[in-house]
Amino acid sequence: MAFRNLETLESWLAEYRASGRRFAGAARVMVQDGDGGANTGLVVFRLDHAPTGVFIQPATQDAAQWVATMEPREGNLVLDPAGLRELAAELTALADLCAFLEAKSNAYHGHDEA
């Protein structure tokens, strides 16, 4: 799927970062082995307030819908109110990034976002 290639994802993330959104620097593109050696990327989002790896990708290979997958943690996460607010802000930014990538994918496929 062309909209998942490494260069396209990096350009979309550059556009997202240039918009000045909070936590935009927490996202990066990693090389992902695609079918048949395809040049694909995987978007990774770093959470500072939860020791959980998060990666963002289309829901299925041909989908324009994006989803976030949080890897399991080994231990409990205990946060005070301030830590919870910061984690909530990071998760809101993650949701914003997923929506941005979904909108870019829909535009790539020629779908109306409305």
Key features of this structure:
23% strand, single chain, alpha+beta, 114 residues, 4 strands, 2 helices, four-stranded antiparallel sheet
Structure summarized in a few sentences:
By secondary structure, the protein is α+β, with helices and mostly antiparallel strands.
Please provide a written account of the structure.
The protein has one domain. It has 2 helices and 4 strands, in the order H-E-E-E-E-H. It is an alpha+beta fold.
Structural class: alpha+beta
Order of helices and strands: HEEEEH
Distance between the termini: 23 Å
The residue-averaged pLDDT reads: 85
How is this fold's topology laid out?
Elements: H1 6-18, E1 27-33, E2 39-46, E3 53-58, E4 66-70, H2 81-109
Antiparallel strand pairs: 1-2, 2-3, 3-4
